[in-house]
Amino acid sequence: MHNRKVAPGRSLMTDAYSHFENYGFLAPFVEQEWLKVISLNAPYYPKMVQYFYNNIIYQHNANGSIRAFKSYVNRVEMRISKNVLAEVLETPN
């Protein structure tokens, strides 16, 4: 059995940056509806995340826009469409 390291979740604590409001630090995240993305806080496997990003392939539509992401981790193929990603992260598509 492999001894896989599990890292605790991390997030950008938006409350900690409230004193920077005059600098507009959070404004872009609010405008793009990405607060949930920077607030994700769940355990993860650092090596698995690294493998996922090292192997990622962008699949494009005929017009050149990205329609999905494909990657492999431990010989397992993963496909994530842009629509599914937007739904999971609760962000606009």
Rg calc: 16 Å
Cα separation of the termini:
40 Å
The arrangement of helices and strands along the chain is HHHEEEH
The biggest beta sheet, please? 3 strands, antiparallel
Strand content: 15-25%
Number of helices: 4
The overall number of domains is: 1
Major β-sheet strand ordering: 1-2-3
Mean pLDDT: 80
Main structural class:
alpha+beta
Any low-confidence stretches, pLDDT <50, length ≥5?
none
User: Care to count the β-strands?
Assistant: 3
Helix content: 25-40%
Q: Can you tell me the overall shape? A: flat
Chain-wise SSE layout:
Layout: H1 27-31, H2 35-38, H3 46-54, E1 57-60, E2 66-73, E3 76-81, H4 82-89
Antiparallel strand pairs: 1-2, 2-3
Kindly describe this structure.
It is a single chain. This protein has helices at residues 27-31, 35-38, 46-54, 82-89, and strands at residues 57-60, 66-73, 76-81. The longest helix has 9 residues, at 46-54. The protein has one domain. The protein is α+β, with helices and mostly antiparallel strands. The protein has a 3-stranded antiparallel sheet. It has 4 helices and 3 strands, in the order H-H-H-E-E-E-H. The radius of gyration is 16 Å and the shape is flat. It is 28% helix and 19% strand. The model has no long low-confidence stretch (mean pLDDT 80). A hairpin with a 2-residue loop joins strand 2 (66-73) and strand 3 (76-81).
What's this, in brief?
With 93 residues, the protein is an alpha+beta fold.
